[in-house]
């Protein structure tokens, strides 16, 4: 791979149809990850066995946890005549053998291309008694040939709300939190901040305790974590919704607002000082809660770290690649550190809103910023060859560019398959901001020490 990258030309030729080394993966992976955030849920891939194996493998490699899922196991006949009989049999078999509380069905390229109507098939399964009493099936349309894993996540979040939320009854005094496409550690962190403020929440979805659970010596098909069916049914009675991430969370929040009149606030992911401030303030406003001294203390620690290490950040150039919601929040954080995010690529089709948001954040940094939505790693590498940054922030696939160009890399986003920690240590909230600073400082100073001649190799920088 690194050898091939050395043939990347500096001169950029505009490409309309060809993507080289995409900076994204397909919708069903995001949908499967969202499904795992429901307690007692078994994700189901309506397509071929190969598709399901890939989706499970991608999540298993990232989280280092066994990911269970069902598949409709399309054959040639299913591909021609439709997969209704396969899905009907799968629903009955999974409830009988594996006893999930919920089956979350997402489609694939194949089932979308032949036009399978999954809601109709689920309705037929219900009428034929294949769905036991008290059990549920939710679904989402997630064709792999459009959007990205972020799109699939958003579609499944909306699907689980649409399929399980019940009409309004009695106000529950809670706040719905749609945490976006983040790590289970990040979901746990946003819940912890809310709990410190005395705010009761319903986190949709919630993979904390599911894809980062403990090793106890006892196998559980369905880990203890995840948002429960009862909570999803009750989310229509909440006093408000905080959706974090426009591309991953806004659709579900707006559905709750439109259908059940639950007012929503759509924020950036709470990465860094400013975006976390916005989250805490939204909790305070919606729930009418006070901000405790413990949270003020954590915020002060982050501010102290920014002050202590500012000299190492100042005017350092950064290239970023990842999901649109994460890139917007990361860019905001880097600018607040007086760093220069100069090359920014998301593989997701995020539209003009993404480019406009990045332009707004970076308008005063005094440096030319390259930004592309629906871009790829090849373009990022070309930009890097034209203007070499001091740091790259991206997933594991960015390591090839980092190695080829001899640039430090901070791993962040999805997938991370060659390191551990992202499942357990958040980058959201004030504590997460401190961890990000530690990782960035470590990468920059490690490079400084590696390159320093003997006469300037000091114990303390």
UniProtKB/TrEMBL annotation:
PANTHER family: LIGHT-INDEPENDENT PROTOCHLOROPHYLLIDE REDUCTASE SUBUNIT B (PTHR33712:SF7). GO terms for molecular function: nitrogenase activity. Belongs to the NifD/NifK/NifE/NifN family. The keyword Transport does not apply. It comes from the Bacteria. It comes from Megalodesulfovibrio gigas (strain ATCC 19364 / DSM 1382 / NCIMB 9332 / VKM B-1759) (Desulfovibrio gigas). Keywords: Nitrogen fixation. This is Putative nitrogenase molybdenum-iron protein beta chain. Residues 26-444 form the Nitrogenase/oxidoreductase component domain. It holds the Pfam family Oxidored_nitro.
